[in-house]
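Subject: Interface between my chains keeps coming out wrong

I've been trying for a while to get a sensible model of this assembly. When I model each chain on its own everything looks fine, but I need the whole thing in one frame so I can look at the contacts. Pasting all components below, labels as-is. Any help appreciated, I'm running out of ideas.
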Amino acid sequence: MKDQLTAQNSKSKIENRKSQIPATPEPPYYAVIFTSVRTDVDDNYDDMAARMVELASEQDGFLGIEHARDNIGITISYWRDEESIRRWKDHAEHRIAQRNGYEKWYSSFATRVCKVERQNLKL
Amino acid sequence: MKDQLTAQNSKSKIENRKSQIPATPEPPYYAVIFTSVRTDVDDNYDDMAARMVELASEQDGFLGIEHARDNIGITISYWRDEESIRRWKDHAEHRIAQRNGYEKWYSSFATRVCKVERQNLKL
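Reply #2:
Try treating it as a single job with all components included. I did that and got this:
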């Protein structure tokens, strides 16, 4: 389990990626908004979170990701179409992370799947 | 300007609200994802941000708001329909805040308007 979820990138590379706003293409495309409140359980949460960012970014149809956490955590991943969201949701390693999230890492959460209709970027 | 943007709620009340995930209604409804990177300019930024949360929550069609900031800031406001988003965008006090944001508070930002098509809430 631990091996499966160990982050393969250095933390600084992940932090670097997280600090940028992705230059998404012209809409329409899709967004998955994942909002969460953490429990007090650590159990390699940071490794899992970093690994999921890494893994998501390798999937077909992935367009970018944004993340911030203070009182709540918000992670938004952007996708080309609904099919790429479905494949990512069903990815074996991601399913393990989702189950662990529901069972121990999150006291509450919301997943919202959205169609991005327009955007205004100043990057 | 300062008077206009002074937060009327105590900071603790705002923090309280921000820590919750809103119980949004059944989709479809709309989300405005605002992602930003701050400049080093302070100039009452926190007062303005708190005031905008307060003001948005009073608008017709407002459904909830989520916010987190670490390397980047993410604020997602949820709305009943596109018309309520348009009215909020054009609200006089909000327009002043937007202009100040573009001119001094944000080095980069993205606004994305989305239609929420489905959700999974565990609140």
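Reply #3:
Confirming on my end. The CA atoms of residues 31 and 122 of chain A lie 19 Å apart.
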